[in-house]
Amino acid sequence: MAGHSKWKNIQRRKNAQDAKRGKIFMKHAREIYVAAKNGGGDPELNSALRLAIDKAKTNNMPSDNIERAIQKAVGEQGGTNYEEITYEGYGPGGIAVMVQLLTDNKNRSAAEVRHAFTKNGGNLGENGCVAFMFKRKGLLIIADEQLDEDEVMLHAIDAGAEEVETEEGEFIIYTEPEDFEQVKQVLEEYNYMFTTSEITMIPETTTAPGDEDKENMLKLIDMLEDYDDVQEVFHNMEFEE
C-alpha cells in the first residue's frame, strides 16, 4: 500500500467532512438507524451498531443525536427501508472512485451519482471495475504529540495491528477488519484516545493527476459528498505533500 499517500487521501476526506458537520451528523444518524434496525438497538450485541456509534463519536456527534437515531429505529414497525449500494467508476485522469450509499430511492441515487461523474469528466463503470484496487481495513488514529512513538507502536503491534505509521503528530494504525475491535479495545485499555475509528477502504496504488484533472476530481468528490444518500467516497488520487 502507498504509505504517505493513502493517509493523505483519508485526511483530505476528514477535513472536508469537518466543513460539513451538520450533513455529516445526518449521515451518521442514517448509518446508526440502519444498523439498529437490522441488528437491534444494543451495541453490545450488535457489532455494526457499535462501529457506527464509534465512528459518529469520533466526529463529535452528540450522544442525544445518537440515541434518537437508535430509538427511532427500534421504535418503528415499518419505518424507512434503506438499501446499501456501492457505485464504482473513474474520475478525471482515470482516478478510481468508489461511492457507498444508503438510499431509500435507488433511481434517484443512481441519477445523482451519474450526473456528478458526467459533469466532472468521469464515468460510472460496472461493479468490480475498481474494487480490486482497494483493500478493506480497520483504521485507528491517535493524535497526541506527547506520546512515545516506540511505545505506541509496540502496544499497537502487540494488540494485533497490521501496520503503524506516524504523520505530523498522529499515529495511523491499520488492522485487518476482523482484528479491528480487538486492537481498539486493547489500545483503549492503555487510555489512548482516537480521532478516527472506522473500517474503511484503502487504495493499494495511487494515481497522480495533472492540475486540471485534480481540480475536476476535487469538484467530483465535493459534489458526491454533498448528496444526502452518499455515505462515503473513496478514491486513489495522490495528494502532494
CATH fold title of the largest domain? Alpha-Beta Plaits
Helix content: 40-55%
Name the average pLDDT.
89
Oligomerization state: single chain
Architecture per CATH nomenclature, i.e. the level-2 architecture of the largest domain: 2-Layer Sandwich
**Count of spatially separate domains:** 3
How large is the share of residues in beta strands? 15-25%
Question: What would you call the shape?
Answer: globular
Sheet bearing the most strands, described? 4 strands, antiparallel
Strand order across the largest sheet: 3-1-2-8
Separation of termini? 17 Å
- Given helix and strand content, the structural type is alpha+beta
Count of DSSP strands: 8
Q: Note the run of SSEs as H and E.
A: HHHHEEHEEHEEHEHE
CATH superfamily of the largest domain: YebC, transcriptional regulation domain
CATH top level class name of the largest domain: Alpha Beta
Total of helices: 8
Rg over alpha carbons: 18 Å
- Which residues form runs of ≥5 with pLDDT under 50? 1-5
